[in-house]
Write the structure tokens for this entry.
Amino acid sequence: MGTGLEICEPLPISPRKVDAGSDTALVEAARDGNRGAFGRLYDRYARMVHGILLARVPRGEVDDLVQDVFLSALRQLRSLRDAAAFGGWLARIARNRAHDYFRQSHQAVELTADLAGPDPPPAEAAAALAVIRSLPEAYREPLVLRLVEGMTGDEIAARTGLTPGSVRVNLHRGMKLLREKLQKEESS
């Protein structure tokens, strides 16, 4: 099995240092109707939402669900009690949306050749994602955010509302389990 985990294209958002204080100001501005402020929040958090969803739902559904999560967040922004908790609140919306995805019935519609989506990911990447998805939930999300979305441990902590220590531990334990499972698959 190869080492590349290019399961799907990461969102084209460059990593930045997280400033929770400015998030609070952006949330407040967005609550007051400033769509540009909400756009900046989208830029900061889209990779996190993408990674959370990728850890839970089929790859082909992720991009649409990212948009659903942000539309839901925009509609519910006034219900957010603590503007500084935006990242954790948004992560919860993403997790709930993934859960809702599986509760809904999905009708299969046959696609014609002109409507077909992008080529499927390489078999190795799809297999690696399947292994990640088989890990305990506490490890899945941080691994996808780190390995697929390219976020640092500090970014994951700041964006999801987890502590840096718990992210570090979950990444370490998750990587250990991932290596063990991938090695078992290689040897069989």
Summary: Residues 20-104+121-187 form a domain with the Rna Polymerase Sigma Factor; Chain: A fold (CATH 1.10.1740.10). Helices lie at 20-31, 35-54, 62-76, 86-103, 123-134, 137-147, 153-160, 164-187. The chain has eight helices and no strands.
